Structure formats: C-alpha cells, structure tokens
Amino acid sequence: MTAHNPSGWRPAMGEPGEAASVPTRSGDRALMLEEALSFEIGSPEKCGVDLDDANVEPIAGLGRFLREGAPDLPGLTEPETVRHYTRLSRQNYAIDLGPFPLGSCTMKHNPRLNEKIARLPGFADVHPLQPQQTVRGAYEVIAQLADWLMTLTGMASVAMSPKAGAHGELCGLLCIRAAHDANGEQRSVVLVPESAHGTNPATAAFAGYEVEDIAATPEGRVDLEALKARLGPDIAGVMITNPNTCGLFERDMRAICEAVHAAGGYVYCDGANFNAIVGKVRPGDLGIDAMHINLHKTFSTPHGGGGPGSGPVVLSEALAPFAPLPFVMRDAGGAPYLVEEEDGATDHPHSFGRMAAFNGQMGMFTRALAYMLSHGADGLRQVAEDAVLNANYVLRRCEDVLQAPYAGSGPCMHEALFGEAGLAEGFSTLDIAKGLIDEGFHPMTVYFPLVVKGAMLVEPTETESRVGLDRFIESLRSVAERARNGDDSLKSAPHFAPRRRLDETQAARKPVLVWKGEPGPSGQGAPSELGGQ
Ligand SMILES: *Cc1c(COP(=O)(O)O)cnc(C)c1O
To answer: How many Å apart are CA 175 and CA 292, to the nearest integer?
Structure first.
C-alpha cells in the first residue's frame, strides 16, 4: 500500500523502464484510472448525507447498539461516491466489453430483450407468498418453460426450483437416493469420471455417497469397459457430463445407461454443456435419468461471481415421482397451479422434500423463456451448431502453436482444449493467460480439466462473430508463440493491466483483509475492524 497522497490517487504500478510506468502527475494512464479505497479519499468534514447527532436519549431495548459517536463512514460527497464506484466498475472486465472465453462456463451475450421482459412489473414485482390466483401469469411462465425443457430433453418431468447447476446435481442425487430407498435398497457409491466438473464429486460426497473415479480412454472419453467392470449392487449411480469437460461428446452414452440400469443404478448427466447439443440430441433418448440444465449458461442470462443462477433438473419416468416440492402442474383445462404440500392428497406424494423455500429463480425463468421464444426451436438448434463451429474454428486455427491433446479424437463440441506441452522451458499455461490480459482479453479457463497438464479450455460460444474470433485467435497465437520461443517479457505479464502479476498462492493463503494504510488527511482512518485475516 502506498502512502496517502492528497489527491487520493495512487501512482501507476509498473516496473522501472517499462512503458506502463512512465510517470504522470496523477498516477493515471489516460483513461486507465487508479482508484484508492473510499476511506483513503474521504475526510470526516465531508458527507453525502445528513445524519442525526448521536447523543439522543437512550432507546429502550437498543442496548449496546446505540451509536455513540460519528459513524465510521468514509467521508465522501455524492459525486465522489458515484465516481469512486464508477471508476472501480471500469476496472472490471465484462461480457459487454469483450469475449469471455472461459471453458465450462458458457459466458455468452445476454440479449437485452430478455432483460426488458424480466423487468416487466408483473414479473419483477411478484412476491412468492402472493395468493396463487394473483400470480397465474408467473406460473404460466414456469409451466411453459418446463414444457420447453421437457421437449428439448425428451424427459418426463422437470424440477424447476434448484437455484444453480450444483444445486440441481444435489436435487438429482436426492431423487436417486429416494428411488433406491423406495425400492428398499442401500447403495453407497457414486461413480464419477476423472474429467468431471468439481461440483460432481463434491455433490455426491455432500449427499452422503462415497465417490469413485471412472477412468478415461486415451481419447478423453469415459472408459465403458472400466465402468462396466465396477458396476454392482453397491453402485447408486454414475454422474457423467455430456458433452464432457474435454469438449467431447460421450458416444457410448446409450451403452453406459443400459449397463448402469441393468446393474440397478441410475444415470445422472451433468447438463451444463447442453448448449452444444440443444436441438440436436435429446438426453432422454440416451437413457439418462436426471440432468440439470444451467439456464444461466445454455439459455443466456448474466452470471458469474456466484449468481444468480438457475438449475432445473429434468427427470425420467423412474425418478419423476421423487422430485422436490413445490411443483407447477397443469389442471385438466391446462391452467397451471402449484403443488405445495407433501401429503397423500396431492398429486405428488413421494417427493423427497424441498430444495428451496419457493419456486426457484423467477427472473432467470423469464429470461430463459424469452431467449427460447425469441430463437424458436430452429434458432436453438442453430445455437448448438454455431457454438460447435466456433470452437472447432479456434481448435483448428491454434493446434499448430498449442498442444491439442484430443484434436485427433475428431471434432470438438462447444469448447477447445489445449495443453502446455511444447512451450519453452520454464513457460506455462499461466504465462499464456497473463499474456492474454495484456492483449485485452479475459483469459480462458486454465488448469481444468485436470486430465490435461496445464489445460487451457476455450469456449467461444455462438455469440462471437468470425471477426471477433479472428482477433482473439491472433492474440492467442501470438502469446503462444512468445511462450514457445521463451520470450522473457511474457514471464512478467500482465504489463498493462491495473495490477501486475500477483503471488497467487500468497494471495489465496494469506489474503490481506485488514487495511493497514495511512489514515486520511484529517486523521480519520479506516474502520478499525474490517474483518480478520
Ligand atoms: C457450471 C458447471 C457446473 C456448476 O453449475 P453452477 O450453476 O455453477 O452451480 C457443473 N458442471 C459443469 C460441467 C459446469 O460447467
């Protein structure tokens, strides 16, 4: 932390002699503005609001919560506050600024139409405890979205309430457990391939199962023979991602499902990558029993930073009876209504229980349905085709400069996987990711999946144009070539970002959560307790 300076700005960070550190009076670089912490800029003489004095008569019941002095607020005027947060927001990279090539995340353009629809007062202002007859329109949205999801997946039923992909996995596994319980069976193991998303084994463990790996073949797919050899009376089910996290379609899915069913287990499919096959393949036709759909990936809607998400779970005939409440159904006349109670009198007496207090993420439902209706069935099919085409374009245009371990296994699906073999001694995937930041791109997913050393997983999505992809590819190729040729300047990248390369281990293991800088000009320092270290 640099010493306080009266203007509130910090000098630009850079190494001596580098372009980035050419001094400016303000410490800023053109429109790249440095931003101090709010209490470094502030002073107690200033305030954006009028606050009452603290010395009022004690109020019964408030106890030690009565304020005794000035509140520990940064002393900022309203314009200073607005500029502070606006400046910080400009240091962020966002999907509206450029592509987010994160594999396994599906960061696509979010049509503004969806936002407009989700903000209609009739959707945005409904309350989950409103009487049913006042929210029939909202139920109609949920029911129509459910119809689309069942049609697109060829599945019997869908549980709408899970709030994210991982929550959907839990929902699916709880359905599987309820089904085994109903059959009077005790099964303790869930099989998960080595390449699975981290949430899969975590969910299985959370649901109380032992997790065992299934080996992959050299082409990056589930080893069917290894799987069959492990099946038996202790296997509750398997969790398979299709398309998988190596960006490949699991061609043996039908055979996998048949084998697992013959052994009395169920097949959970991680459907986070459904955008690669929507309109092309119906998971129900492959024999899958449960699959979550990340509405916030496949069907657009902004996500990141932990939310908001929505992870409805489509279910086979076998698992449908165990789905969580509440449940939107249609009556004989087609009108949607809510099944709320778990008792013999309802249409849904075998539910395993409840995943969420209410119906799920209404805003996400509305956005996803708007996306489906605006694309139509043929448009959704084209989403899958374009996503796959774009990923194969990236794969084929970069495979001569980056190791492409599964390029020989045929076309990839919606994401292209590279590894770090072939880079100069001492250079790694991390250097490529940091070099991309200087090029003005958010890096791709790195070091995942674990089956490839120094994995780089690029998902362009269908929403990037040919011109946009070419720009990204040229930058990626250039950075990859620097790493192959041992260009030392890459080792200290990024050079042009607001912050230079961090010691990431140190940052993760010993995050500095307490501000220890200089107090502001008038002696008012930081709030003394920002949190532990
Ligand atoms: C994103 C993702 C998940 C988890 O979904 P969340 O909505 O983040 O909980 C699970 N599996 C795969 C393959 C994913 O890409």
So the answer is: 12
Question: Ligand 1 centre from 381 Cα, in Å?
Answer: 21
DSSP SS3 for 528: coil
- 77 contacts 484 by C-beta, under 8 angstroms: no
- Contact at 8 Å (CB) between 257 and 288? yes
- Ligand 1, atom 5, lies closest to the CA of 165
pLDDT band at 66; cut points 50, 70, 90: confident
pLDDT of residue 144: 97
Atom of ligand 1 nearest to the CA of 245: 13
Select from 312, 302, 37 the least CA-distant residue to 168: 312
Atom 4 of ligand 1, residue of closest alpha carbon: 165
DSSP state of 198: T
Any idea what the Cα angle at residue 36 is, between residues 30 and 38, rounded to 5°? 130
DSSP letter for each residue of 54-74: S-PPPPTT-GGGS--SS----
pLDDT at 533 over 90: no
The pTM (predicted TM-score) of the whole model is: 0.87
* Residue 421 to residue 412: CA distance in whole angstroms: 19
CA of 249 to the centre of ligand 1 (A): 17
- Identify the helix (H) or strand (E) that includes residue 445: strand 445-446
Contacts of 430 (CB under 8 A, 6+ apart): 446
| Residue of 167, 154, 127, 160 whose CA lies nearest to 141 | 160
Residue corresponding to tokens 């009739």: 122
Q: Which residue has the higher pLDDT, 20 or 477?
A: 477
Torsional sign, CA 215, 216, 217, 223: positive
Q: Quote the tokens at residue 260.
A: 């697992």
Tens of pLDDT, residues 121-169 = 999 999 989 998 899 999 999 999 999 999 999 999 999 999 999 999 9
Task: Give dist(CA 339, CA 514) in Å, integer.
Answer: 49
CA of residue 271 to ligand 1 center, whole Å: 8
Rg (CA), the chain: 27
309 lines ligand 1 (CB under 6 A): yes
Which one has a higher pLDDT value, 401 or 26?
A: 401
For β-strands 210-214 and 189-193, DSSP reports them as: parallel
Q: Is 529 exposed, middle or buried (0-12, 13-18, 19+ CB in 10 A)?
A: exposed
In the chain, the domains with their CATH numbers are 37-53+75-89+508-533 (no CATH), 114-370 (3.40.640.10)
Res 440: pLDDT: 93
147 Cβ neighbours under 8 A, 6+ residues apart: none
Closest CA to 172 of 158, 153, 183: 158
> Does position 14 have pLDDT exceeding 90, yes or no?
no
